[in-house]
Design brief:
Two copies of one chain form a homodimer. With about 775 residues, chain A is of the alpha+beta class. In chain A, about 25% of the residues lie in helices and about 25% in strands. Chain A contains 19 helices and 30 strands. A seven-stranded mixed sheet of chain A has the order 3-7-1-14-11-12-13, sandwiched between helices. In chain A, strand 12, helix 7 and strand 13 form a beta-alpha-beta unit. The first copy, chain A, is globular. In chain A, about 60% of the residues are buried. At the A-B interface, helix 7, strand 22, strand 23, strand 24 and strand 25 of A face helix 7, strand 22, strand 23, strand 24 and strand 25 of B.
């Protein structure tokens, strides 16, 4: 602990694979989760949900539930509105009611809530509730939603937080929750001049985050504050949004978040919090709601999307122009869908240097469960489309996929579709390192007989969300140990460890001396949210600035008491000042990266604080008789700048890759008239240990993000980008079957094989 | 909430009698106290205590206790030392063992600890423990302790925190834990030249804090930290001292303090925390110890003291020289006694302008329960002596008590005994206002027949503890609501409200928009402790500085986004910056007043950051047949600078006065060979509602502490100063009986009446 502020210590904390700071608490089963929390007098809530996709509510019969012994209360929207006259929430639109009002818009929508001290009583009572519905025409498909007479929301109510949604305010008879358009150059002219024009349409399915810790929230109405304990990725947002709903000042709402058992974008914005908070206030007692795994299927999903890409290409493979049309199936409530639409929209042409670009991206309301952000914020859907498209063009022109990419790759300093010049974006480095690790230019064994082998590569990129801000406090104790107050949520990604390493590096103290305070809006300052791989960069800067502020103050204090900070230990500075072990030095850091909003054409010279790059190479083995295939090798390359903790970076790459592998091969929400027909982990298959490819290699290329904290940037999503198209291209490479719809199933390959052979399917 | 940073708002928060911020939580029974805390797996601890005052421990038999079903563990010092080889703690000396080692030094000393899930089992088991003692000669009287062969501690071990204790390190065969000496001028020469020399000796008894919430601590050994929930006035000290004992860094110990049900100096430094913390670590489970009311009698007490004062006076009543000798009965462990000795020592001559002063003040170990700070830090004992002495001189010289004081009072700008020039000390103002309210110069009805009436006045002053430091964080939310992180403990004195008012004043926001975060060493920065009426001044400055830092940052932010902070609301500044309700502005304040330590003669020009002044006027009615008397009127005047909240100031004055009234009239710990014989609220009489004088008037004079936050300074103790001598002098004034020992009882008056009449007592 007896370290000085001298430079000799720096470099010791950052970039080392130290064990995660929470490892011990987790492996001993002592880590805090909201699920473990029980408060005196606490009631359990159970939700009664809609069984129809779109309907007017004629009536709700809660009499039997209310009469059940042990039931404390049954609430419907009418009760909610006694406390909150307009109980609609949402980050982009105030479209989501706390409990359904007049209408239900998707199967599984919360219609009523039962509270009881015994959760089994609450569940039994919820099953006694019935609702009388007048069913309305429903729309489920994102393309149909563009023109359907079935309108999900009568009037659009933008939240007022995003300027690009303002023009939608009060709009009627539309399901379009955002239309994003970007124009650069003149695609029509370029298509006319091109040697070839290719157009393909792709689809991705609706899937689920499925954190192993389902949604859970406890609200405790204390006399001075409403305290909300919640498994949330966005404590600051929850505080502000609940305060807005209640008409209270922010500081009367306290949001506390312990560890999360995964989030992946599911636990953002308001999920259970509004319902639990209002129920607790109505009941005057603490209330807890924990969803079952099945209920998770109705809470938030990942957008299904249809993606049409059209490219004008020269005969030697140079992409001259590209048009992208993307339709995002947002489900019944917008959640952050419009942001997904816009933020992913502007990278829809892919990491390629194309002079003429036109993008149209639409967020659509449908009568499915709401869709939001899921590890990649729309990018894996886009990369799936544009990298499949790239390989289809290469194949048509008989150009090697690597050569095709090398020819068109977006190089450092060149303008991206928004006009922003690429900086610290290791697209070329990642591509070349992937080629090297795949030994792309060496002979590849394609197999023989019924087993054929193929390989594919794919690369994607992503902008970071902007503008956002992070604030942090670093408190140095008199013995040199350090507390860091920050609202970044450690949901398994290792942020506590990363922040400790950054603070240790900035202060020049051992990383073991740094402890994190978990999010608690009373004491950890504002952070936009833990999402979009932004924390290492944004909160990393905030804690660095706070540590540097503390360091400056310590230097000043040393000077004041006549000591050299370079050679004196921190405890000695305090001791000299206070005559004993006493005092604290508190530093504050506030970070907001520079950003320029796009103009009407979608053009800006500053679209993102940093770029994330991810690429995957896949080798597959396909059974030509059955269509069954296995992924034999998966090579995942990313640019994360300087890795804060290489071991954690590696697990982030592999975790992201395997998650996307599930979305590529097995996961799909099946619907029947809006009802999920496979809403259980028995029927909905996420990857297990036996699904891990025999060979999996994960690597961060040697890069530095010049604008990042000590050269670092985010890593949580980059591993997802290339997985789906790399595998699809490998299948095509092996057996000549090009699949354009996810998931990639043996059945689809089999159908393709039969079609190629001119043989009809034998069903 | 929509206020600006413009000057127009300031002045609205400070000085108003707004309701206490915690009032609602308290009256609805929902305020958090440690007593309410139950943790999963928590064990209850029950202490086995010494029954002898001074002895070697030959053996402790815990076998029966260990064998009792339901007992989790029984610990003695040997167990403690497995974890902490040298388990001694204390703020001034490391003299107090967590459990008795080899020796016991007072009746009630903790010897062993039983842990059980059921507190009744723990209690039953504790009663099965026995110890075999070899009794040693004991010393109970502070004068005898000066020379006694009975030595409480073999070797003195100063904690190293106070430089003036260093010379005692390693000293043997002494009970003197501090000898404080101050010399100014030449008293011997002055006595020789004086017309009269008066010498009187006074005594005060040992009494108790008796907060209605007894001591309680819970320690929770979580994987990453030891979390201590404790009813403590000094969370920062507890953290540092427990970390020191365990050899851990500070940030591995987390100390949380909710509301306190009173403290009065009892809950300072380490009380139960070390025992509970170590027991929890040994058991690997949360442990709670709550003392009974009876056990409080052995935990910490107020110093009994013997005070000798000798004054040389001119025939017209001018005090020329004064010698004070004070012996403080510190009990078996020093606690903060040496600080009481030193800090009160230097004001022992009283608020009088005396050229020649000699002070000798001794902290003494005895075999009684330890004594510490109690509302006044030794000052009420001193004022009792010097104001009784003043009136005895006045009476002897036939000078009116008010005139005697007017002649000698220490005026603004004149040097106090340390040499420090008096600044912002309203001694004269308080005295004159008291005279006015008492209508001192008008005729006073002295009664007739067996009921005689008398009146008395007394005035005292006190320095604040120095040097100490306070650090605070002020966090402004995007809607203009504010969180304040500070480690000041609200134990009923209203500090939460005062801090909210000061922050609101500094920021120019409504006081309702400010919320306090309760002490939690993870997130509320260092504060020396909540003691000695220092919080309003020290923490008041820290929160003011933090608020001003936040205000400056808001001003800068407003400027940055092109707004005028003077006319724009805080929410608008955030909204302009972030495009929505987002972000925080965090300000930090750190305060340490200037201070110059005294030289070898006790001389300094900067002894205290501020002075507290308190005076009381009493009118009594005495039954000349029985000696029974009642206090008919009590007028209490204080200088608190500008009152932050006049209503709370009033309750602080009345609370302090009534507490001192108990110490004056009824409270006294009775001992038999070191055993307290009245250790219950049935036998030890604290004031009840019927003991409140029929007329009680409390007033803060119109003063401004120029160096205080917005002119304020502390108030918690000033009401105690003058109560005892004013009542004693009133009795003397009524019936000519001068009592020199507290408490003042009817029996003592009766004995005095009989003695005056030359009649022997009829027992």
């Amino acid at each position: 602990m007896a370290t000085t502020l001298g430079k000799s210590n720096s470099g010791s904390a950052f970039g080392r694979s130290i064990p995660r700071v929470e490892a011990r608490a987790k492996v001993t089963g002592k880590a805090e989760y909201v699920h473990n929390l029980r408060l005196p007098g606490m009631l359990y809530g159970k939700v009664f949900r809609s069984t129809v996709a779109h309907a007017r509510i004629r009536g709700i019969d809660v009499s039997a539930a209310r009469a059940l012994p042990g039931v404390h209360a049954v609430y419907t929207a009418a009760d909610i509105m006694r406390l909150v006259p307009d109980p609609h929430y949402g980050p982009a639109f105030h479209d989501q009611p706390v409990l359904a009002i007049d209408k239900v818009r998707h199967v599984g929508e919360p219609v009523a809530l039962v509270l009881a001290a015994d959760p089994h009583v609450a569940e039994a009572a919820a099953q006694m509730i019935s609702a009388d519905y007048e069913e309305l025409p429903a729309v489920f498909d994102e393309i149909e939603a563009m023109t359907s007479k079935a309108v999900v929301h009568e009037v659009l109510k933008p939240a007022g937080t995003f300027p690009d949604l303002k023009h939608l305010k009060g709009k009627r008879d539309t399901n379009i929750a955002l239309d994003f358009h970007l124009r650069r150059g003149d695609t029509q002219k370029a298509f006319a001049a091109a040697d070839h024009v290719f157009e393909h349409t792709f689809r991705t399915q609706q899937v689920l985050h499925l954190p192993l810790e389902p949604f859970v929230t406890v609200a405790d109405p204390t006399p001075n504050q409403l305290v909300i304990h919640t498994a949330s990725q966005s404590p600051s947002f929850v505080r502000i949004e609940i305060a807005r709903l209640l008409g209270w000042p922010e500081n009367k709402v306290r949001v506390k978040v312990p560890y999360l058992g995964g989030g992946f974008g599911a636990k953002l914005y308001i999920k259970l919090e509004a319902l639990v908070a209002i129920a607790a206030l109505l009941a005057g007692r603490p209330v807890k709601i924990s969803l079952t795994m099945e209920e998770q299927f109705y809470q938030i999903t990942k957008h299904a999307a249809t993606l049409r890409i059209k490219s004008g290409v020269s005969k030697d493979g140079k992409i001259l122009a590209r048009e992208c049309e993307v339709w995002w199936n947002g489900g019944a409530y917008a959640d952050i869908g419009p942001r997904v639409t816009q933020k992913s929209g502007f990278t829809a042409p892919g990491p390629y240097d194309i002079d003429h670009v036109a993008i149209d991206s639409y967020a659509l309301y449908t009568n499915l469960p709401a869709a939001g952000a899921l590890r990649g914020f729309g990018i894996p859907q886009l990369v799936w489309a544009y990298e499949s498209h790239t390989d289809m063009i290469a194949k048509a022109l008989n150009i090697d996929p690597l050569a095709m990419r090398r020819k068109n790759i977006l190089k450092e300093g060149r303008p991206q579709a928004t006009g922003t010049l690429m900086r610290d974006a290791g697209i070329e480095q990642v591509l070349e390192r992937l080629a090297q690790r795949m030994q792309w230019e060496k002979t590849f064994d394609r197999g023989s007989g019924k087993l054929r082998r193929g390989r594919g590569i794919a690369i994607g990129f992503k902008a970071s969300i902007s503008p956002t801000t992070s604030v942090a406090i670093v408190n140095v104790s008199a013995d040199g140990s350090v507390m860091v107050n920050c609202s970044t949520v450690d949901m398994g990604q290792g942020s506590d460890t990363a922040m400790a390493q950054i603070v240790a590096e900035a202060l020049g103290v051992p990383v073991e001396s740094v402890t994190l305070v978990h999010p608690d809006t009373d004491v950890t300052p504002y952070d936009m949210a833990t999402l979009g791989s932004r924390s290492t960069f944004h909160m990393g800067h905030a804690v660095r600035l706070a540590a540097e502020d503390a360091r400056d103050k310590l230097m000043k204090l040393a000077q004041e008491v006549g000591l050299s900070a370079e050679t004196t230990s921190i405890p000695d500075i305090f001791r000299k000042k206070y005559g004993m072990q006493a005092g604290n030095i508190v530093g504050v850091g506030s970070f907001i990266p520079s950003y320029a909003p796009p103009d009407a054409q979608g053009q800006t010279d500053n679209a993102t604080p940093f770029w994330m790059i991810g690429a995957t190479g896949a080798e597959v083995e396909v059974d030509t008789e059955t269509g069954e295939f296995k992924v034999a090798r998966l090579v995942n390359l990313v640019d994360v700048g300087r890795p804060v903790n290489p071991a954690i970076v590696e697990t982030q790459i592999s975790g992201a890759t395997l998650m996307q592998l599930g979305f590529t091969l097995t996961e799909r929400m099946d619907f029947d008239a809006g009802q999920v027909t496979n809403a259980s982990l028995a029927d909905y298959k996420i990857p297990g240990i036996r699904d891990v490819p025999a060979v999996m290699e994960n690597e961060a290329v040697d890069m530095v993000q010049q604008t990042g904290p000590f050269g670092a940037k985010g890593v949580g999503e980059s591993g997802t980008f290339g997985v789906s198209p790399a595998i699809a291209s490998a299948i095509d490479d092996a057996v000549g079957v090009r699949l354009t719809s996810l998931p990639l199933t043996a059945e689809a390959v089999y159908r393709g094989l039969r079609a190629n052979a001119g043989k009809p399917l034998q069903d």
